[in-house]
Write a structure and sequence with these properties.
Blueprint lengths: L2 E10 L2 E10 L2 H11 L4 E7 L37
Antiparallel strand pairs: 1-2, 1-3
């Protein structure tokens, strides 16, 4: 079965993250495969392509109790493009 890279936006206990996964084409098959690969996560969205490195995610307010600092990715906007391009 042919698979292609997708970015999964998923949530667990109020923490939201973006993960790169390979899933088959088709809405239902892609979701089924994502759930198999991320069994403890609530799948919010599947976006074609590998974007996890450049995605800002936000935790659900009042849900994420951990005091762990969130990793920062720095400024991912290309320096040769104006803001809002």
């Amino acid at each position: 079965m042919y698979k292609r890279p997708f970015t999964a936006i998923c949530q667990k206990s109020g923490r939201t993250k973006a993960v790169s996964i390979d899933v088959p084409d088709g809405k239902d098959k892609a979701l089924e495969s994502a759930k198999e690969q991320l069994p403890d996560e609530n799948i919010i969205a599947l976006i074609p392509g590998q974007h996890a490195r450049n995605v800002y995610t936000y935790n659900a307010e009042g849900m994420a109790k951990s005091k762990k600092p969130q990793p920062t990715h720095g400024d991912v906007w290309p320096t040769n493009l104006p803001p809002g391009f």
